[in-house]
Inverse folding.
């Protein structure tokens, strides 16, 4: 019997702006199982990044319940939620979001900074993580000394360094050319095959072929799932 | 890797901004250190100078009788002295329990004489002691000058045995000029010099050598009073007076508090000015630090969002900001201490018109660092809180 990694129940998110209310997420209910890889597609403003931030324990919903691995994350205190993000989630942000004054190794090590592991252990874990993304030879380089694809790999290494069960990726190939983007998607596919649950927001239909399931979002609602996407994605994952 | 390394790396990356921030601190700390150095040096030097310039105490014969005034001080009328001060009392002063404080001992004999056709007051002094103690005395005219020579104040130190120095108003009253002869108690004296106007009782006096005046007044060995200058900065003048009275039981000692009060007032005024100016500079420095820190936090919004998103607690963000502030402030305190000390060392003598050097006061190093750190930490609270409370979702533009 499969276990649920992400459980969303009737999630709503309303933003107030200049006295008006904007409903960014409208009653979304969704389950994602452990080990799944899911892409969320939709146009700009469809609410997919907001949904990702809610699942990422960064943005409390206006209503509804979110459980990740059985934990109701918004019942946790701010500090416990920070700990939760560190232990359970690996973020891959849009445009890499590396810290410019830290080397590839230090960037990869960043989520371990506030843990109680020894310096040696932290370093070994970061080296291992960079090895997994194929960047062992460029550990001492600063982000501006790396190509876009390499920076994305460092961002992925940072996301997986402390072996979180869930990876959240926001447009991970948005700043990359097609070839590099495909390489990065293959890397995500490989990580998923190793057991990680991956939830990816993208507006590139090509990326969906690397993911097990695709969810469409429109105007803050889930509009259709993978089975309905034959016309959207021509080249399904083998 | 730890939070300290993140803070250190950030400082390295933002060198210009951090140097600017540190300069704000350096200016503030160096102003305070500079002023403290100068004020301290003023305490030392002004104290020394006043000690050199004037008497701290006046020794008078113990007496019961008529009184007359000399230089704001009441002296005994000589006719009714019960006790007498003599030249033999001088060594007792140097042997007293307060001998280590004694700098200048200036004995004098005051008496009324017939000068020309008038009565006048004459003061017998030991020229060197008297005029070193009172360097504000200067000559407006001097006898026996060679062509090309000008009046020399040091000439006062060597009044000839048969010479007199006349106060400005006494010269007018007696109608004498330099080089002229003046008959005093039937004995001729040459007017060696005429003093510049002082605006005090001294303008009406005639000065001559002590032994000559003792002989002139027929009071050998006798003294009217002894003026004492003490070596001290914050003179325990009451203690000195008691020590002198013990050594000279035939005398009474009047401590002169005016000099000490004047010194305290002058330094107090400069200190108030210094502290006020330092306070203003520190306030400006604090504003510079505050605005620079705030701007740094604003620039790092996204970075802080990343930290928060990947699991940094708010307290971790606070630690990073305070570590950065701490490192800059310690460095700022160090540089501020040395720049303030050097500024005081080189500019202080001109600013405060000090003659001596202003030494570096290493005891101010720790307070300087503490001042810099305390100030920076205080004004960093708001930027740090702002950074820690950044909404990571907003910082990463998820919203």
């Amino acid at each position: 019997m499969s276990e649920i990694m992400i459980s969303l129940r009737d999630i709503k998110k309303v933003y107030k702006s200049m006295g008006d209310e904007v409903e960014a997420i409208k009653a979304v209910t969704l389950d994602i199982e452990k080990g799944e890889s899911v892409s969320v597609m939709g146009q700009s403003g469809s609410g997919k990044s907001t949904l990702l931030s809610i699942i990422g324990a960064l943005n409390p919903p206006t209503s509804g319940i979110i459980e990740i691995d059985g934990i109701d994350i918004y019942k946790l205190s701010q500090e416990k939620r920070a700990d939760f993000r560190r232990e359970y989630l690996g973020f891959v942000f849009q445009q890499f979001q590396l810290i410019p004054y830290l080397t590839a190794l230090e960037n990869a090590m960043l989520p371990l900074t506030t843990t109680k592991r020894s310096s040696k252990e932290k370093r070994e874990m970061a080296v291992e993580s960079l090895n997994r993304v194929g960047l062992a030879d460029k550990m001492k380089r600063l982000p501006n000394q790396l190509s876009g694809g390499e920076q994305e790999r460092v961002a992925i290494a940072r996301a997986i360094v402390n072996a979180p069960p869930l990876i959240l990726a926001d447009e991970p190939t948005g700043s990359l050319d097609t070839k590099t983007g495909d390489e990065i998607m293959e890397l995500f596919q490989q990580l998923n095959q190793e057991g990680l649950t991956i939830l990816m927001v993208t507006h590139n239909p090509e990326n969906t072929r690397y993911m097990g399931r695709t969810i469409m979002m429109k105007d803050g609602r889930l509009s259709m799932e993978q089975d309905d996407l034959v016309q959207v994605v021509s080249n399904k994952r083998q | 890797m730890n939070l300290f390394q993140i803070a250190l790396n950030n400082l390295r990356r933002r060198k210009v901004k951090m140097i600017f921030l540190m300069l704000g601190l350096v200016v503030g700390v160096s102003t305070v250190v500079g002023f403290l150095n100068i004020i301290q040096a003023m305490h030392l030097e002004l104290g020394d100078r006043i000690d050199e310039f004037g008497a701290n105490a006046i020794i008078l014969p113990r007496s019961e009788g008529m009184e007359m005034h000399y230089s704001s001080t009441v002296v005994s009328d000589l006719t009714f002295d019960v006790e007498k001060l003599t030249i033999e009392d001088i060594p007792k002063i140097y042997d007293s329990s307060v001998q280590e404080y004694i700098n200048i001992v200036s004995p004098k004999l005051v008496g009324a004489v017939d000068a020309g056709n008038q009565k006048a007051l004459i003061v017998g002094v030991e020229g060197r002691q008297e005029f070193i103690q009172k360097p504000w005395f200067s000559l407006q005219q001097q006898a026996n000058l060679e062509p090309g020579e000008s009046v020399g104040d040091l000439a006062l130190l060597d009044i000839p045995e048969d010479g007199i120095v006349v106060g400005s108003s006494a010269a007018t009253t007696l109608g004498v000029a330099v080089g002229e002869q003046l008959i005093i108690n039937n004995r001729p004296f040459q007017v060696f010099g005429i003093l510049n106007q002082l605006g005090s009782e001294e303008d009406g006096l005639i000065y001559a050598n002590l032994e000559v005046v003792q002989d002139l007044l027929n009071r050998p060995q006798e003294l009217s009073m002894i003026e004492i200058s003490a070596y001290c900065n914050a003179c325990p003048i009451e203690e000195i007076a008691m020590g002198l009275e013990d050594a000279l039981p035939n005398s009474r000692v009047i401590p002169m508090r005016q000099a000490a009060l004047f010194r305290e007032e002058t330094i107090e005024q400069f200190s108030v000015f210094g502290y006020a100016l330092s306070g203003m500079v520190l306030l400006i420095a604090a504003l510079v630090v505050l605005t620079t820190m705030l701007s740094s936090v604003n620039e790092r919004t996204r970075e802080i969002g990343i930290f928060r998103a990947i699991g940094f607690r708010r307290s971790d963000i606070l630690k990073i900001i305070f570590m950065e502030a701490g490192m800059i402030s310690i460095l700022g305190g160090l540089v501020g201490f040395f720049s303030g000390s050097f500024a005081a060392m080189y500019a202080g003598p001109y600013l405060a018109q000090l003659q001596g050097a202003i030494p570096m006061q290493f005891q101010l190093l720790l307070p300087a660092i503490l001042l810099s750190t305390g100030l920076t930490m205080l004004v960093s609270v708001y930027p740090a809180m702002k950074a820690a409370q950044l909404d990571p979702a907003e910082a990463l533009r998820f919203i």
Observations:
- Residues 55-255 of chain B form one domain.
